[in-house]
Amino acid sequence: MIDALFGSKTRVKLLNLFMNSPDRTFYVREITRKIDEQINSVRRELANMLEIGIVRSDSKENKIYYGANKSHPFFAPLRKIFTSKEINRDDDDENAVWVKRFYTVGDVKLVIFSGKLVNDFDSDVDLLVVGNVSKVKLGNLVKIIEAEKDISVAYASMTYEDFYYRKSVQDQFVGNVLNAKHIAIIDNEHILENGK
Predict the structure, then answer these.
(1) Do residues 181 and 107 share a domain?
(2) Where among 86, 102, 123 does a domain terminate?
(3) How many domains are contained in the chain?
(4) Same structural domain for residues 52 and 121?
(5) At residue 145, what are phi and psi to the nearest 5 degrees?
(6) Selected residue with higher pLDDT from 44 and 21
(7) pTM value > 0.85
(8) Are strands 155-158 and 63-68 parallel, antiparallel or unpaired?
(9) Lowest model confidence (mean pLDDT) among 5-14, 35-44, 121-130
(10) Are residue 51 and residue 144 in the same domain, yes or no?
């Protein structure tokens, strides 16, 4: 629905990036990697957004960096739209569908959506699956997620024992996932109770 409202999937992804990282700037190739869109459509939409004034640009080290223009009169309302759960009013229903799908890949204990799956474009991982799972079935499910959400998904899986150990020794990878913006779609062992 929001794509229709804003007229372009690339524009929506750019707004999502800028409104969820208002204090950061990005160069074009970095943007294309983060939102997984073609460079020409990114450049076209950036030019449109610069003309409107919702995006600003700065030149550093022979690169042009783009970021949100926080002084634009529409910055606050756009930020509210793109950081609100109301964008996906059907999140709970959608999550219920994902729960069923993840149970088909094996004995799943924990599934965490992070990164692009929760509109956080600074995370290195978008999906973490914990449990005894079929790598093939998980890979196939990731392909479905990528097709439905029109993004590329960086994912990792590990056994419950491995995850529990890594969490207990404050492993950097697990810590980065848990300290970043995330949603636990499945948490059968209540691993993440009390916030972490």
Answers:
(1) yes
(2) 86
(3) 2
(4) no
(5) -60, -45
(6) 44
(7) no
(8) unpaired
(9) 5-14
(10) no
pLDDT(89) > 60: no
Determine the pLDDT at residue 194.
42
Judge if 50 and 130 occupy the same domain: no
Question: Which pair of tokens denotes residue 138?
Answer: 């998980």
Q: How many secondary structure helices (H) and strands (E) does the chain include?
A: 9, 7
Q: What is the mean pLDDT of residues 40-65?
A: 92
Alpha-carbon Rg of the chain, whole angstroms?
18
Among the candidates 86, 118, 134, a domain finishes at 86
Indicate whether 117 and 130 sit together in one domain: yes
Instruction: Give, in order, the Cα–Cα distances in Å from 165 to each of 21, 110, 159, 170.
Output: 32, 14, 10, 9
User: In the 3-class helix/strand/coil scheme, how is 99-141 assigned residue by residue?
Assistant: HHHHHHHEEEEEEEEEHHHHCCCCCCCCEEEEEEECHHHHHHH
Note down the domain range covering 81.
2-86
CA atoms within 13 A on the CB side of 11: 16
Helix (H, G, I), strand (E, B) or coil at 49: helix
- Domain identity same for 190 and 112: yes
| pLDDT per residue as tens digits for the range 130-169 | 999 999 999 999 999 888 888 899 999 999 999 989 998 9
CATH of the domain at 32: 1.10.10.10
Amino acid identity of residue 87, one-letter, is I
Q: Whole-number mean pLDDT of the chain?
A: 85
pLDDT of residue 94: 65
